[in-house]
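Fold this sequence, please.
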Amino acid sequence: MRPASRLVRCAWAAMLLTACTLLAQPPDGQHQPESIRQGQQLLRQGKLDEAIALFKQELQNSPDSVAANNAVGVALDLKGDGAEARKYFAKAIEAASNPAAKAQAERAMAMSYAFDGNCKESADHEQKVFDYYVTVKDPYQQGEIADEAARVCIDYGDLDAAYKLYKKGHDAGLMEPDIKPDRKDLWEFRWEHALARLAARRGNRDEAAKHVAAAKAILDRGTNPQQQMFFPYLTGYVAFYAGDYKTALAELGRANQGDPFIQCLIGQSYEKLGDKEKAMECYRKAAATTAHNPPAAFARPFARKKLG
């Protein structure tokens, strides 16, 4: 796998369901110090203050460490202190010794703004990552990054910006040289998936249903079986915004139960149906996420607010 592809190889899963974090790959191709690895373990356990202490210990020895600066920033975002987090991400961007590491730090900065619900600033930093993939001639990753930015914007209600970014991602992805039919189907599925969610958010049920059907038809070709798991997320999402909360629960119950965004949708569905106890249970799960990606950027602050 090319080094450029490693940087965001789980970006689409991050846009929808997974808990891939920006700490997964050491920047600059370096071996991570033991303090960083131990801190990451503490972070995954939700012990944010202890993790920050270890990361800052590493910074005392290596103040220009991209890994340590990024790590502190991630932990601070999870604590809800985005302004402080972005000081460390800015340092990581400044200290990065090569374009790939700088792009990784810019992506972390984009997610920091996402945790604060700032679509514009998040998209501006994602654009710098997109530009990096232009320089290395990687249309697939250009599409991944544009879609990731779009996901932040749709989650926080900037539907016009989300549409433009999803279209940009779709169009960029299709520019891959000698693109194979299955890869083309993948981008078409993502596009229909996005259009269905946008229509649902705008209250256009008929249009949403049309795009859901189109997404299903692409899946039925069998070229991307790994994408089947994303379909109940789509149908549950559309049902929720159509006000059909029982159907939303049924569909979302077949989606990835470990995804904090889906946990929030399930919680909201229970809340609409008057089951506050089950809703709070879902919010507690979502609030515990330690991922640093679009689903977590929406779900963790949202759930913590719901829990008071």
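Confidence is low (pLDDT under 50) at residues 1-25. Residues 3-179 form a domain with the Serine Threonine Protein Phosphatase 5, Tetratricopeptide repeat fold (CATH 1.25.40.10).
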